[in-house]
Specification:
Elements lengths: L31 E6 L2 E6 L11 E6 L1 E3 L3 E5 L5 E9 L6 H4 L5 E9 L8 E8 L2 E12 L4 E8 L5 H8 L16 H4 L7 E4 L11 H9 L3 E8 L21 E6 H9 L4 E5 L1 H19 L5 H4 L15 H14 L4 E6 L14 E5 L6 H10 L2 H11 L10 E5 L1
Parallel strand pairs: 1-17, 3-12, 3-14, 4-11, 14-16
Antiparallel strand pairs: 1-2, 5-6, 6-7, 7-10, 8-9, 9-10, 12-13, 13-15, 16-17
Helix pairs in contact: 5-8, 6-8
Length: about 400
């Protein structure tokens, strides 16, 4: 069966509100761990995950950093307009440089109570290093599913990074029914986060501590870091009856030659992705390399992975060949990295080309994240999730973790 024909009702389950974690475990590696190993289920504490990993694994992490993307503006009448920054509305050759820009920036945004935004501009005053800053938001354009907003600020010498950090609020997921507090600024961020740009955390990584990563290295395990900026679309439920009617969200990934070369050096080992976003990145890397091998003249626009193309009939190369091809393609253009979108959808019927194991959380019913889990272990996801519900595991972003070894 083609994944387009999958009925989303087959990937639903009853999730009682009390099973959704509103706060994380403290310390973060004390959350519970459910291990699915070739059909066998075991329980433990997350900090012991290395006891269950296969011999000589490579763990691939997503080192994106969450920005304070919720900015609240108070209208002169007293009402509040919430602007949720999704992604820059411009070419994005390098996210890191983008956050260093000064004076103004164009962003694609969602707007709460947009119909009540009657003023041409909204302003917000706040402090950066005890200096008063005024941020102005102007509505530029309405898109089909969002808006374009121009942000400008004075003093203009402050960077976009400083402005968003000073003006915004941590963007907790919509199912965490509380206001973000100061602790969320730390808790809703992985300890290895580095490159700003996400509006949601790669939550599988929230369980890891620096001590755990040090232990992995001392045991000879390899840890690699790449970047995919998580978009709000990760929370978008599938509302169509079949997957064909669902539009998969696109997310930006920054793939460096250094990462690809490290991946190539470890290509024959067992690759474990930490999170669905790392999985999407690794599988996208394979398909980009595969496209290059099948079309020597492909340009950057042709490398973007669209929603369904990985299910089209095509010649399939080895993962080693695919990674080598992508490295050469980037180097031939005298670049050190590739910043590109992916719309890849990993669903039952798909066989992973790069990933052989997954560390993840428990996901929402009717979600593409649950489809990704089902692609790895088939209908066994139902038994795994039923076990987690019956044994009081905590669900979703601040919940417990699982290790899936198909």
């Amino acid at each position: 069966m083609h994944p387009k024909d999958l009925m989303i009702e087959d990937y639903s389950y009853s999730l009682p509100p009390e099973k959704i974690a509103l706060y994380p475990a403290h310390p973060r590696d004390s959350s519970r761990l459910l291990v699915f190993n070739k059909g066998k289920l075991e329980e433990d504490i997350f900090r012991h995950i290395d006891d269950y990993l296969p011999e000589d694994p490579v763990l691939v992490f997503n080192d994106t950093r969450v920005i304070k993307s919720r900015i609240l503006f108070q209208k002169p009448t007293g009402g509040v307009i919430e602007i949720f920054c999704l992604e820059p509305f411009q070419n994005i050759p390098n996210y890191d440089l983008l956050f260093q820009q000064t004076e103004s920036a164009l962003w694609k945004c969602m707007i709460g109570k947009a119909g009540k935004w009657k003023e041409k501009r909204l302003t917000k005053d706040f402090l950066i290093n005890n200096v008063e800053v005024t941020l102005t938001a102007a509505l530029v354009e309405k898109l089909s599913d969002s808006y374009v907003v121009r942000f400008s600020w004075v003093p203009a010498h402050f960077s976009l990074d400083e402005v968003i950090s000073g003006a915004g609020v941590t963007p907790l997921p919509p199912y965490i029914k509380r206001l973000a507090d100061k602790e969320d600024e730390v808790n809703y961020q992985t300890v290895y986060s580095e490159h700003e740009g996400s509006v949601a955390a790669p939550t599988a990584g929230l369980h890891f501590t620096r001590e755990m990563l040090d232990t992995f290295r001392k045991k000879g395990m390899t840890t690699l870091f790449t970047t995919l900026h998580v978009g709000a679309g990760t929370f978008k439920p599938v509302k169509s009856d079949t997957m064909e009617g669902h539009v998969m969200h696109a997310e930006w990934q920054n793939i460096t030659v250094n990462f690809l070369e490290s991946l190539l050096n470890n290509i024959d080992r067992t690759i474990i992705s930490v999170g669905t976003t790392a999985t999407r990145t690794l599988e996208s890397i394979f398909w980009m390399g595969n496209k290059i091998l099948n079309n020597k003249n492909i340009d950057a626009s042709g490398l973007k992975i669209s929603q369904w193309e990985i299910y089209d009939p095509q010649k399939i190369h080895s993962r080693k060949e695919a990674v080598i091809a992508l490295i050469r393609w980037i180097k031939d253009r005298h670049q050190t990295h590739l910043m590109i979108e992916t719309e890849i959808i990993i669903a039952p019927g798909y066989s992973c080309k790069m990933v052989q194991g997954l560390v993840t959380n428990f996901h929402q019913p009717n979600s593409t994240l649950l489809l990704l889990v089902a692609a790895l272990i088939g209908d066994e996801w139902k038994r795994m999730y039923d076990y987690a519900l019956q044994n009081n595991f905590r669900f979703l972003s601040y919940g417990d973790g699982c290790l899936i070894l198909p």
